[in-house]
Amino acid sequence: MITAGEMIKNGGLVAFPTETVYGLGADAFNPQAVERIYTAKGRPGDNPLILHVASPAVFFELAQNPPPYAAKLIEAFWPGALTLVVKKNANLPHWLGGHPSRQTDTIAIRMPANPVAQAIIASSGCVIAAPSANKAGTPSPTTANHVKDDFVSGEVDMIVDGGSVALGLESTVIDATSAEPAILRPGAVTGEMINATLGIDIFTVATAFSATNRDKASTSHGNDSAPCAPPRSPGMKYRHYAPKAPMTIIVGASENIAAYIKKECKTSDWQSVGILASSDFLYDFATGEKAKVLALGGTPKAAAQNLFAHLRTFDKLGVSEIYAEAIHGTGLGVAIMDRMLKAAEGRIIYV
Ligand code: AMP
Ligand code: MG
Fold this sequence. Notes:
Strands 7-1-2-6-3-5-4-8-9-10 form a ten-stranded mixed sheet, sandwiched between helices. β9, α7 (191-198) and β10 form a beta-alpha-beta unit. The radius of gyration is 20 Å and the shape is globular. The chain has helices at 4-9, 31-41, 56-62, 68-77, 115-124, 144-150, 191-198, 207-221, 254-264, 280-289, 300-317, 332-343, and strands spanning 14-16, 23-27, 50-52, 82-87, 106-110, 128-129, 158-159, 172-175, 182-185, 203-204, 247-251, 273-277, 292-295, 321-325, 348-350. By secondary structure, the chain is an alpha/beta fold. It is built from twelve helices and 15 strands. Helix content is 36%, strand content 17%. α11 packs parallel to α12 (332-343). Residues 47-50, 85, 97, 104, 106-108, 131-132, 170, 173, 184-185, 233-235 line the site of adenosine monophosphate. Magnesium ion binds next to loops.
């Protein structure tokens, strides 16, 4: 039987667990294999991929003069959920890291901590290009079954089942192309952790709201003429993580959130209302009304692990509207709220 590593070495597509979410991996230097990732996912060609490496040494071979803070971040957080976007070495294929028909000057690189991911990278002998193993726009997969739900046979050559992932949110993406780092996508390596390591006050590029504004602009004018500055991370401009039903995030006291849902929900059939509760109060309210309620979890860690799976469950339950109770936006909460805001396409209400 062929192993996952051999499959990738031979140009195949393998879905595998990482500590963040499941990835859909291919040999990053094989243009046909990389093109298949884009086709299978339905991923826009201008959204580049993260390159997964076996060691920091491979990062330093691929990156061109990375800034000194990159080495400090690698020392502190690798292997782990931190991706560094760097200028790429001139000797590399002009398309590496992106769609093979396009030119890229920068590449995003990460060394995952999950032992299954590490074993696959090592046994393939490849740098593995791997975005999340879901169809573009849907919630990222946190179990092998989520991957199976999204792809028909033939689109992916092998799915390696490593159980539920440890973190549940994609990696933190750092722009390391200039003297000052910036967070392009918040993740489990938080701004606070980076600040403590580098002794700085890192800037977070406003992902969720800018993505929403741009989506609206691009619907009416087309992407190229959208009147916004281009996003610093191409993935920021796309609809993401979205459940099928429209979702609204509500910020405020749980009692007020319950009252708002009761007043604003579009149907009198509570069975078709999905509620993502982070407080016991809202959970009990939703249970009492016989809505479809899922508990996000008592801690930010649990909420991160549950979020995408719950959004997929709402799809399966066939709810027609979803209301989500906001969580506190510090630490890991920044990343959770970022994904929730994208899933809600920016719909947020303060009560
Ligand atoms: P995914 O693999 O689906 O988690 O998405 C990878 C994320 O990394 C997307 O948001 C990409 O836009 C971002 N990314 C990958 N390569 C680059 C790059 N060279 N510059 C900026 N962002 C990047
Ligand atoms: Mg993705």
